[in-house]
Design brief:
The chain is mostly helical. Helices cover 81% and strands 0% of the residues. The chain has helices at residues 2-37, 41-54, 59-71, 75-88, 93-105, 109-122, 127-139, 143-156, 161-173, 177-190, 195-207, 211-224, 229-241, 245-257, 261-267. The termini are far apart.
Length: 269
């Protein structure tokens, strides 16, 4: 009789513990999903934090909170969250990718490359990581490696607008406008309203002396993304090349007010 009671007590206790654990997990997932669906960055952080308070080992909540911190330019907080996610799940590819992207912004290039390399070793078929490493290589003027990474991304995802644009921008920097135009044309075929692709084609047209086409493209890019300062700077360059100094200065001032340093230099000339 005592053994039966003891067995029932143990079964009840285990069931209670399991219910509590599952309940916590469900609640954590609820707050995580609420954060994922939220648009306000501060509220996203609040919801992800609630999920973490319920389940301190919720790697995805740390990663996604890190993404929100990144968008708020709170890079130290973002790195802390990505690092925590990795400590919980050492195979978390996107946490390595995301931390690498922050390191790139902080110009910690060796750390960034290390994280991108680790992500690629975990998943050699992830086009996003190749793209991000390609952007980093291009920033370091390691153009051959950048092109190789963009090409690898395209081989994995042949419809990658960003990879074609990234490779096209690299060819542009190498003053190979023919190859740059081929790549950006493919990108715009897939996504005719992609502002960064339009911005690249505008730059190519300007270098080729096709100022009307260049200005039309960058004006479209601005209409799709009016908050990106470099677009106004680019249009200012186009107007300047066309001899329309007042329009150029207006765009340079706009870009400068938005934080584009090169545009500020143009305003001070």
């Amino acid at each position: 009789m005592k053994s039966d009671k003891l067995r029932l007590f143990l079964i009840f206790t285990c069931a209670l513990v399991l219910t509590l654990v599952l309940g916590c997990t469900k609640n954590a997932e609820y707050w995580h999903n609420k954060g994922f669906e939220e648009n306000d960055l501060n509220k996203k952080i609040e919801f992800y934090t609630k999920a973490i308070s319920i389940d301190p080992n919720y790697a995805r909540a740390y990663n996604n909170r890190g993404v929100a911190y990144d968008e708020l330019k709170k890079y130290s907080d973002a790195i802390a969250d990505f690092t925590k996610a990795i400590s919980i799940d050492p195979d978390y590819i996107m946490a390595f990718n995301n931390r690498g992207s922050i390191y790139k912004k902080q110009k910690k290039y060796n750390d960034a490359i290390g994280d991108f390399n680790k992500a690629i070793s975990l998943d050699p078929n992830n086009p996003l990581v190749y793209y991000n490493r390609g952007i980093l290589y291009r920033e370091l003027k390691r153009y051959d490696e950048a092109i190789a990474d963009f090409t690898k991304a395209i081989s994995i995802d042949p419809n990658s607008v960003y990879a074609y644009t990234g490779r096209g921008r690299t060819y542009y920097l190498l003053v190979n406008y023919d190859k740059a135009m081929v790549n950006v044309s493919i990108a715009l075929k897939f996504s005719p309203k992609e502002p960064y692709s339009l911005g690249l084609r505008s730059d190519i047209y300007r270098e080729l002396g096709k100022y009307d086409e260049a200005t039309a493209d960058i004006s479209k890019a601005i209409s799709f993304n009016p908050d990106y300062a470099p677009f106004y700077y680019t249009r200012g360059l186009n107007y300047n090349a066309m001899g329309e100094k007042n329009k150029a200065l207006e765009d340079f001032k706009k870009a400068c007010d938005m934080g584009e340093e090169d545009a500020c230099k143009k305003c001070n000339k």
